[in-house]
Amino acid sequence: MPTSNGTLSDSIARQREELASMLKEPLRLTAEACSEVWPDRKKLDDVLQGRLASIPNCSFLYALDTNAIQISDNITHHGLQERDFGRDRSQRPYMREVVPSTGFLLSEAYISLHAKRPAVTAIQIVRDRNGNVLGFVGADFDLRELPLTRDLYEEPRHWRQIKGDPSIRGTVFFQTRQESELDRQLDTVLGVIEELMVDHGVFHIMIHFSSSRAVIWLYDDPYQYRLLDIDALVDPDTCLAYPRREYPADAITPRDSIRPILDGFKKLRTMDDTLYLRTGTLNIFNGIVGLTFSCDGSHYIPWDEFLDREHAFWVSGLKEDEPAETTG
Questions:
Q1: What does the pLDDT look like over 84-128, one tens digit per residue?
Q2: How far is the C-alpha of 99 from the C-alpha of 229, rounded, in Å?
Q3: Cα-Cα end-to-end distance for the chain
């Protein structure tokens, strides 16, 4: 499946550029045709009906005056809708953005009032022959109907730290780690988990240390997860419930790194009674280790950086998780 490089914002920007290039010319021609009959409601409806087919996947087409009051009906592929004639659209997201000097604007996505679904609107300024602004043509699009390439966004592989709930961070020094059943049998649990990941097709795991459970995903059945309670996690026979599978060749995380990563979880779980690991995750295909601590701060870090004890995560990252101590 194709993937897109760069940040999530980069991926969104590329999709918007493709959509804008597809809509600019038909909206410009529609605005020119409307300027000839402006502001006659009936004639505007006729022009917009004739132009609708030239605007790909448009849900609603309409005309607005300079105050963003609708002066035409809604033009749809199912006919005219009179409900929005006279409607004030000035406070809608697409009318609160600044239209560029080119006269064309593709809005940011927003939630539509009627369908309650993500939508975008293209706005084109309508001018008379002397260049005076008469109003706008608006074209609404349901996001799910747009013919975009929608290349799969690829998660970046670099260390990311996300601050957690401030109320939890503020009280972290008033709590102490309570040894869970999983903590008491940690070596056995990690042995079972290693076996499941290396030889039984588990490609993603989420270990909840404090509540003594784990959630697993198998590449034989990736759309469902399995919940393993403490009884399953301490019983090596649990591995018999899942078919033996060769370690996938396309996994980013090497097979022989699984145990060292799990041992890293153990270190972070037991290193301190105040600041400690609550949840650890590993996905062998994207190679990302996820960590959530008692202060609710989270880290997402590539497997090789996680195993590098000279990496900034180990040198300074954990200290950054520690909230400022308060008194009184």
A1: 999 999 999 889 888 888 899 999 888 888 778 888 899 999 999
A2: 56
A3: 56
Distance CA 244, CA 285 (A): 18
Residue owning tokens 């109003």? 135
Q: b vs e for 34-72, b when ≥16 Cβ sit within 10 Å of the residue's Cβ?
A: bbebbeebeebbebbbebbeebebbbbbbbbeeebebbb
DSSP state of 83: T
Residues 6+ apart with CB under 8 A from 208: 214, 215, 278, 279
CA distance 20 to 254: 43
Task: Say how far apart CA 152 and CA 143 lie, in whole Å.
Answer: 16
pTM over 0.70: no
Write down all domains in the chain, each with its CATH number in brackets: 3-145 (3.30.450.20), 156-321 (no CATH)
Nearest to 207 by CA among 277, 259, 276, 256: 277
Count CA atoms within 13 Å of residue 145 on its CB side. Answer: 13
Give the span between the Cα atoms of 210 and 115, in whole angstroms.
42
Q: How many other C-beta atoms are found inside a 10 Å radius of the C-beta of residue 290?
A: 17
d(CA 104, CA 20): 9
